[in-house]
């Protein structure tokens, strides 16, 4: 028998490429709500860093948005992306590598486990790092920065995008929470969890008993910190793997 009248909240929008669009589940609706809003970040520090790209031997991308806004910034500052052909490029996962390929470049390094913590350790073990540039957002963690500094590797950061709670979606979140059909939540970053509670308030607090699907360990650790106690993480830290975990959970329930 199918599952009756249940909703799953996904902390990003649904589109044709999103694996949550076609979950094979009866009587279960996925509500995609983009809890985080992104925007280009540009300042004098960014301009100085872009003008010194030639000095870095590695450029590291830890998110899809980092790549997207990095290339936007190059274009805005009339800097040719040809300079990247002489650099080693690293991405945090296979999907990020696909995004990079869309801009015409192949990642020289993709870690076996798709998170920044494991990425840094593996790079130290396998690669020669001299002068590294980390491409980040305003709310990105400082895991790689700290690790490389600890090992006396020159490391600079380039902030290319800002992420803020998407206040435009407050009504959507309240609709989901007041309908009382919510059966699980799916988060793709710690900041999406922050936004969920900021928009949902006390009603969101009442959902911490629900299954909480997280894209990776970093997000899972934050979910645990704020009170979720039934946390599920896929072995591979991708949206596709996360969708498979959700599907498997509800079929076995």
Describe this structure in words.
The chain has 253 residues and is α/β, with parallel strands linked by helices. The chain has helices spanning 44-50, 64-76, 94-102, 116-126, 143-150, 170-179, 190-205, 217-225, 239-252, and strands at 6-10, 28-32, 36-40, 58-61, 88-91, 131-137, 154-165, 182-187, 212-214, 231-232. It has a five-stranded parallel beta sheet, sandwiched between helices. A five-stranded mixed beta sheet has the order 3-7-6-4-5. Strand 8, helix 7 (190-205) and strand 9 (212-214) form a beta-alpha-beta unit. Helix 4 (116-126) runs parallel beside helix 5 (143-150) and helix 6 packs across helix 7. The longest helix is centred in the last third of the chain and has 16 residues, at 190-205. The N and C termini lie close together (11 Å).
Fold topology:
Layout: E1 6-10, E2 28-32, E3 36-40, H1 44-50, E4 58-61, H2 64-76, E5 88-91, H3 94-102, H4 116-126, E6 131-137, H5 143-150, E7 154-165, H6 170-179, E8 182-187, H7 190-205, E9 212-214, H8 217-225, E10 231-232, H9 239-252
Parallel strand pairs: 1-2, 1-8, 4-5, 4-6, 6-7, 8-9, 9-10
Antiparallel strand pairs: 3-7
Helix pairs in contact: 4-5, 6-7
Give a quick set of tags describing it.
253 residues, alpha/beta, five-stranded parallel sheet, 9 helices, elongated
Strand/helix succession: EEEHEHEHHEHEHEHEHEH
Give the rounded overall mean pLDDT. Answer: 93
Radius of gyration: 19 Å
**How many beta-strand elements?**
10
Proportion of strand residues: 15-25%
Main beta-sheet strand count, sense and barrel state: 5 strands, parallel
Strand order of the largest sheet: 2-1-8-9-10
